[in-house]
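Postdoc handover notes: sequence design on the structure in folder B. Input tokens:
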């Protein structure tokens, strides 16, 4: 499933094989929670260099699996030709979602008052029904901040639930809050179960960046080198480069598309905030569809006049920017110049 191709220090370049094609890592996946990348068609997303995305099994389960099954699976339902991964639903417990975490799973409150227990086995069944390429084991994701007792309970549940989920193409999710000892405990326990891949969840949810990095440092030394490592919810350029240096292979986040919808363009020199009276910056180096066909003044005009096209064009640019950054990191690692690449990129970006 995963082959490590090259390393530079702890940075890694590899290849992940799935039923819908191979993916080169480091890799970024945009979020398509309910079966769509907001504002974009599949063709537009593919043109940005996107080859995989992540959706949410719990959301799609509640919206009804029958129509997806009738279409022939989630790939046909979405008309997405690339790879699809599906989050298990554990994260929704901290997202103002109508559910409660219990000992044996997540209790969902339906609109008419009916309650249902979404168990680890149910989560895997839903993901298999969807036809995802990669599944995630159901986890107990505690909010930030949480007490040490709540974090320990979360780790106990996550380890226990994972025993019901060990199937082909299932990634275990490592929890532990910002407690390094609990992160290490969870990692060691899940590694003994020999999952095809390991995801690190419960970070980038409000904790200080230094705590996020400390949590990663408590996990990564204990992960097997021949298995892919997925950091969930992280997507800023600085965090991507920092975490790739630490040994992360795969990322997913709504960061580039969410910022695009709010008028923020990502560039190598920093951010450009659209919708203002005056703007500074240039996108001359970008080869995405948006920048090859429209001016920065036009994008600024669209946001100032609140035209819906603004969000679409900005999303195309930001996804292209992130995918290009990850492509450049892959090349730099293979050519053993990644350290210099990061120094140069950060110097330019901060300027």
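Designed sequence:
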């Amino acid at each position: 499933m995963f082959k490590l191709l090259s390393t530079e220090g702890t940075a890694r370049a590899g290849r992940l094989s799935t039923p819908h094609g191979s993916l080169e890592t480091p890799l970024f996946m945009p979020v398509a929670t309910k079966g769509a990348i907001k504002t974009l068609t599949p063709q537009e997303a593919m043109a940005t260099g996107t080859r995989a995305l992540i959706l949410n099994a719990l959301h799609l389960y509640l919206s009804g699996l029958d129509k997806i099954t009738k279409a022939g699976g989630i790939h046909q339902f979405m008309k997405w030709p690339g790879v699809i991964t599906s989050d298990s639903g554990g994260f929704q417990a901290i997202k103002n979602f109508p559910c409660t975490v219990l000992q044996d799973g997540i209790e969902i409150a339906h609109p008419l008052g009916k309650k249902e227990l979404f168990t680890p086995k149910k989560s895997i069944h839903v993901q298999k029904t969807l036809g995802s390429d990669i599944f995630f084991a159901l986890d107990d994701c505690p909010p930030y901040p949480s007490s040490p007792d709540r974090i320990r309970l979360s780790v106990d549940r996550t380890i226990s639930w994972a025993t019901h989920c060990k199937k082909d193409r299932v990634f275990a999710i490592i929890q532990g809050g910002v407690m390094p000892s609990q992160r290490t405990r969870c990692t060691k326990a899940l590694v003994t179960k020999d999952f095809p891949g390991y995801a690190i969840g419960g970070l980038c949810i409000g904790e200080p960046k230094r705590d996020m990095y400390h949590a990663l440092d408590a996990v990564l030394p204990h992960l097997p080198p021949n298995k892919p490592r997925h950091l969930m919810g992280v997507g800023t350029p600085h965090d991507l480069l920092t975490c790739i240096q630490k040994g992360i292979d795969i990322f997913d986040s709504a960061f580039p598309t969410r910022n695009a919808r709010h008028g923020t363009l990502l560039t190598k020199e920093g951010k450009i905030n659209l919708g203002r009276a005056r703007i500074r910056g240039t996108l001359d180096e970008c080869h995405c569809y948006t920048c090859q066909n429209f001016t920065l003044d036009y994008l600024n005009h669209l946001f100032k006049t609140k035209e819906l096209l603004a969000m679409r064009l900005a999303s195309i640019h930001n996804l292209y920017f992130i995918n290009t950054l990850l492509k450049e990191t892959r090349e730099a690692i293979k050519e053993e110049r990644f350290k210099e690449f990061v120094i140069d990129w950060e110097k330019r970006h901060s300027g």
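Context for whoever picks this up: The chain has a mean pLDDT of 95. Don't rerun without checking with the PI first.
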